[in-house]
Amino acid sequence: MAKIKVLIEGYAKPLDKGWKASCTTCLITTNDKKIITDPGCNRVKLLEALAAEDLNIGDIDYVFLSHRHPDHILLAGLFENAKYVTFDGNMMYNKDVLLEFDKHCLGSDIEIVATPGHVNEHLSLIVDTSEGKVAIAGDVIWWLDSEEQNFDLHQKDHNQAVDLNMDTLVESRKKLLKMADYIIPGHGKRFKVDK
Ligand SMILES: [Zn+2]
Fold first, then answer.
1. N or C: which end of the chain has fewer CB within 10 A?
2. Rounded to the nearest whole angstrom, what is the distance from the C-alpha of residue 22 to the centroid of ligand 1?
3. How many domains does the chain have?
4. How much distance in Å is there from the Cα of 159 to the middle of ligand 1?
5. How many angstroms does the Cα of residue 69 sit away from the middle of ligand 1?
6. pLDDT tens digit string along 78-100?
């Protein structure tokens, strides 16, 4: 079974102009792989969190990128030995070699699922852990710091992407709720799914 450690809990705060935001970053450990999900854009926090796990950036085997927004992917290039599983045409990058990936390329305990809506190209992970199935949701579900973090299927998405589609997003939310016992949002606190 895989283990998940939330290295950084994502945050998002609107400023007078713009935002202060970086996403949730997780470390998934399987028998033979160390995987970082959405490395975010706060370099100091990321390096501190890795050091606290006794890890160097060179120790990471895979980086998973949920979608294209810079607050999720800006630091992706840090990991010199990693392969990159990306939302872009479902391609996995091994340096400059691009190959379409299989949904279990990160291991038998991890499934990559398409979760469009927040933007059209968006992926999430369902991870089999000792406490049950955990969805690393990316921005299928996320909150502002100032919002009450009670999940609602129809909660507003504050993103300004031109390809935001609420109907598709609600379908992706339903899909994750069905598959998972716990959800780790792109920004905000992890929660248990009411079954
Ligand atoms: Zn986003």
1. C
2. 10
3. 1
4. 7
5. 5
6. 999 999 999 999 999 999 999 99
